[in-house]
Design a protein that fits this description.
Layout: H1 7-18, H2 55-64, E1 78-87, H3 90-94, E2 108-117, E3 132-140, E4 143-150, H4 163-170, H5 181-190, H6 195-202, E5 216-217, E6 222-225, E7 231-240, H7 249-258, H8 262-272, E8 278-286, H9 288-293, E9 313-322, H10 327-332, E10 345-347, H11 351-367, H12 444-452, H13 455-469, H14 475-488, H15 490-500
Antiparallel strand pairs: 1-2, 1-9, 2-3, 3-4, 5-7, 6-7, 6-10, 7-8, 8-9
This protein binds protoporphyrin IX containing FE.
EC number: 1.11.1.6
GO cellular component, one term: mitochondrion
Function: Catalyzes the degradation of hydrogen peroxide (H(2)O(2)) generated by peroxisomal oxidases to water and oxygen, thereby protecting cells from the toxic effects of hydrogen peroxide.
Length: about 525
């Protein structure tokens, strides 16, 4: 008789047994063979050496010894949950983009969200002063779309090559293995384009009350693209329905000691109690010609668009309704990447975004293995057909018997190209000029932010800075950073100067000189100089 083996049966059995209560499943080896007791081991006599033939015991240690995978190089500590995104304003989006996920009001798309701190290791405290990651994976009908946001509209850098330098200074000193305030502020003071993000970080926004009382921003300009290839710049923004709420430095410090997992626990319990956290999603749009005239470079990640400058329009809402049933499988193994894009969504020429398009998939291959997209939490709901084959842990049938090359005998169906993407973006002059040089316009947002703070928030910002910067041993590091605050507002600078024991008149500005061959300056035709 013809007999066929269905490998999927085994997978289904394992998945189903994982969902059963203990009492209904029998204890076995990895091969499914029953074993009498988990503590059982074989030895000679009652106290002699153990036996190599005891494969139950060696398998136990073989698996245990390999439990840890590399933690994320940044954003290592986090928590996440699943839920859905629902479109509320498809008409608005359709004017600018063909993204299927926004195509009809009421359309619900399953999502997974992971929140995180940035600088700490996987066991670090949730209430550390740090930006928060806010990553959303949309399982759209047309493939995976990841929106990998932070809880801040801007970032410390606008030059991709600075990222590893910046991150190294926020992590540990290579010798002492301690967090190092001199390194921390040496980098920031010598790269003054970081100033607005630094001020947000040292305000109480740097210690949000868990993960649900904060907003999310795409940060970069992305592009929305229509079927005819025309496009606009777009930024997305998620506003918390729980209201923005932050801890003071003193409160955050206490909580870090009492419950380092405060935000993780808070998120889990809210969902477990059925009070599902939600956010409203907004879009800001600038046409390419508006972008050229815009007062800031739209490819500069250190500058916000501001809702006064570019109005926001609601496009949808999302809610987190389901805790993971297994944290490692569904959150630790989740791979979010700005490179996971769908038709109608494209990158801008923002250099930091361009670098991210490489970095995430690259780290996923390292952290999770080449076939990381086959891990259930990452696996698209849309079918996948291509010529990538084999590799470690290829567990979904390896695309079966389909040809592993572009075959004329058994041709693969090719999708109609949705549009010819007009990648031309106006890179010269005006709004999009060189990003390397720090000029007075870089103090615009820091000044707007300072002016927007209440007196209490200004005082908290000053004392939060003093508490940290005051710990830098190098006087020049303290002085240089203080001088930057003085350029934002003289009284602000003076207050910090008094707090950290320096005089503000000795201004050392700007910081590190960038050699021209490494500069991002472009000539009049838009090609890179040098
Ligand atoms: C995580 C690189 C800037 C948001 C990561 C990871 C890398 C990385 C390698 C670890 C990913 C993983 O192991 O799964 C970079 C580089 C940047 C950059 C090279 C700039 C050159 C940004 C910016 C944002 C951001 C500007 C937000 C607008 C995130 C988030 C995560 C993350 C939310 C955590 C994702 C998760 O929860 O799994 N980044 N990043 N990053 N990054 Fe970035």
């Amino acid at each position: 008789d013809a007999f066929t083996v269905d490998f999927q049966d085994g997978v289904n059995t394992q998945v189903e047994s994982g969902a059963k209560p203990d009492a209904e499943v029998e204890y076995t080896t990895d091969g499914g063979t029953p074993v009498a007791h988990p503590y059982e081991y074989q030895r000679i006599g009652s106290d002699g050496p153990l036996l190599l033939q005891d494969v139950h015991l060696t398998e136990l240690f073989g698996a245990f010894d390999r439990e840890r995978i590399p933690e994320r190089v940044v954003h290592a500590k986090g928590a996440g949950a699943h839920g859905y995104f629902e479109v509320t304003n498809s008409e608005f989006v359709k004017q600018y983009s063909m993204m299927d996920v926004f195509s009809e009001d009421g359309l619900r798309t399953p999502i997974t969200v992971r929140f995180s701190t940035v600088g700490g290791e996987s066991g670090s405290a949730d209430e550390a002063r740090d930006p928060r990651g806010f990553a959303i994976k949309f399982r759209t009908r047309k493939g995976i779309w990841d929106l990998v946001m932070n809880n801040t509209p801007v970032f410390f850098i606008r030059d991709a090559a600075k990222f590893p330098h910046f991150i190294h200074t926020q992590k540990r000193n290579p010798q002492t293995h301690l967090k190092d305030k001199d390194m921390f502020w040496d980098y920031l003071g010598s790269n003054p384009e970081s100033l607005y993000q630094v001020m947000r970080l040292f305000s109480d926004l740097g210690t949000p009350q868990g993960f649900t009382h904060m907003n999310g921003w795409s940060g970069h300009s992305y592009r929305w693209i229509k079927e005819d290839g025309t496009w606009v710049y777009v930024k997305l923004y998620a506003e918390t329905m729980q209201g923005v709420a932050n801890f003071t430095n003193a409160e955050a410090t206490t909580i870090q000691g009492e419950n380092p997992d405060y935000a993780t626990q808070d998120l889990y319990e809210r969902i477990e109690n059925g009070t599902f956290p939600g956010w409203t999603m907004y879009a800001q749009v600038l046409t390419p010609s508006d972008a050229e005239k815009f007062k800031y470079n739209v490819l500069d990640l250190t500058k916000d668009w501001g809702f006064d400058d570019v109005p926001k329009t609601e496009i949808g809402k999302f809610y987190l309704t389901q805790n993971p049933s297994n944290y490692f499988a569904e959150i630790e193994q989740a791979a979010f990447s700005p490179a996971r894009m769908v038709d109608g969504w494209g990158p801008s020429a923002d250099p930091v975004l361009q670098a991210r398009l490489f970095s995430y998939s690259d780290t996923h291959r390292y952290r999770l293995g080449v076939n990381y997209m086959q891990i259930p939490v990452n696996c698209p709901f849309a079918p996948v057909a291509n010529f990538e084959r084999d590799g470690a842990m290829n567990v979904l049938g390896n695309q079966g018997s389909r040809p592993n090359y572009l075959s004329t005998l058994d041709p693969i169906k090719l999708a109609k190209r949705p549009y010819v993407d007009d990648l031309h973006q106006q890179w010269t002059g005006g709004a999009v000029s060189s990003l390397a040089e720090v000029t007075d316009i870089d103090f615009d947002w820091p000044r707007r932010f300072w002016a927007s703070l209440s007196e209490t928030d200004q005082q908290n910002l000053i004392s939060n800075i003093v508490g940290h910067l005051g710990g830098a041993k190098s006087e020049s590091v303290r002085r240089r950073q203080t001088a930057l605050f003085a350029l934002v507002d003289p009284a602000f600078g003076q207050a910090v100067a008094d707090g950290v024991g320096v005089s503000v008149d000795a201004l050392e500005f700007p910081g590190v000189e960038v050699p021209t061959w490494a500069n991002t300056t472009r000539d009049a035709k838009g090609s890179t100089v040098g």
